[in-house]
Design a protein that fits this description.
This protein is an alpha/beta fold. It is 23% helix and 21% strand.
Length: 346
């Protein structure tokens, strides 16, 4: 198996929208419509599936969600599948997806983050298909800050394309936009300065890092439940596709520092970080505890690996978003003067 990159999207191509996890409540339909218009403005046709209900914690029964996602990912007329957002229990899809059919089909882009990690990361590991961990459909109308890209930029890039993203130096530390009242909001509220931080070493955020490897990762609270299963065998992926090692990225969605610490310990014990040349950790607004911060939780679990650990990367639940392609070749540089992640689609 080698990493398979879906062909770049061109005007006239179709983009599928389905909710493998949580659907969209009626009161947020306006934001969904605004996001669809943004995709259509790029020249694409949007196909909305049946599994979209926001009445419960999932959009439809698991069998229906699995069937619709499989159908979209194997339909040669659909070139990308972009759920509105994540959710909580996409794990129920994994035994129901037709993995042989997905492996044999022409590759299709799958985009998202949060609970979509539960599906996207195994999709890359088991089929070799590159996926985009980044801003989801409901985030798409936001104007992208300088230095970053949108998923729309990446899915239109040709094979072999190389691109570099750099942190904008500001992020959102408080609150969130009210899509009910302002469904067309397009400007991020980036109210707080911040930069990447090296956690290992002297602990003050300094220390130069330069590391390479294929990229793989996702949301901690979701991937920890797959640790030790065939759905999250990063070591086998590294042996086949990146014997020189991986760049592993993780991010905390909302669990407190004790939970994140336990989850990362479990993932480490299951071998998820065994072939990591460096670890990128997303910036988080998840709470610490009286005795343990989120940064300390990461160090407690992963500090013994002896590889660089860079935190506060824009690859999580805190806006803005730095899309990462699972399976792409990556090169991370972090010094006192610059921070950047370069990805190559080969």
């Amino acid at each position: 198996m080698s990493v398979r990159y879906p062909r770049p999207l061109r005007p006239g191509d179709r983009v599928g929208v389905t909710s493998p996890s949580s659907g969209v409540p009626k009161e947020l339909q306006g934001r969904l419509d605004a996001a669809i218009r943004e995709v259509e403005a790029q020249g694409y046709e949007v196909v909305v599936g049946r599994c979209m209900s926001g009445d419960g914690h999932v959009s439809a029964p698991a069998a229906d969600r699995a069937a619709e996602l499989t159908a979209m990912l194997t339909d040669p007329g659909i070139r990308a599948v972009v759920p509105p957002w994540g959710g909580e229990t996409a794990i129920d899809l994994l035994p129901l997806l037709d993995w042989d059919r997905l492996r044999e089909a022409e590759p299709t882009w799958l985009v998202g983050f949060s609970d979509l990690s539960t599906v996207m990361t195994p999709y890359t590991l088991l089929t070799g298909t590159a996926t985009v961990h980044g801003n989801n459909l409901m985030d798409t109308p936001y104007r992208v800050p300088e230095g970053l890209l949108s998923w729309l930029d990446i899915v239109a890039a040709p094979a072999g394309h190389r691109f570099t993203q750099t942190p904008p130096g500001r992020h959102r530390a408080t609150g969130r936009d009210d899509y009910r009242t302002y469904p067309d909001v397009r400007e991020f509220t980036l109210d707080t300065p911040g930069r990447w931080t090296r956690l290992d070493g002297n602990g003050n955020g300094n220390g130069d890092v330069e590391a390479e490897g294929r990229l793989i990762g996702g949301c901690i609270e979701m991937l920890c439940n797959l640790a030790g299963t065939a759905f999250l065998d990063a070591s086998a992926f590294a042996r086949a596709e990146s014997p020189q090692g991986l760049l592993v990225y993780v991010e905390a969605g909302g669990d407190d520092a004790f939970s994140i610490c336990r989850n990362l310990h479990g993932m480490r014990l299951a071998g998820f970080f065994d072939t990591a040349n460096a670890i990128l950790v997303g910036r988080t607004s998840a709470p610490g505890t009286d005795s343990l911060t989120q940064h300390e939780a990461v160090l407690d679990a992963l500090g013994s690996l002896g590889v660089p650990i860079i935190a506060d990367v824009e690859c999580g639940h805190v806006p803005p978003y730095l899309p990462i392609v699972n399976g792409a070749r990556g090169r991370v540089v972090h010094t006192s003067a610059r921070s950047e992640l370069t990805q190559t689609l080969d």
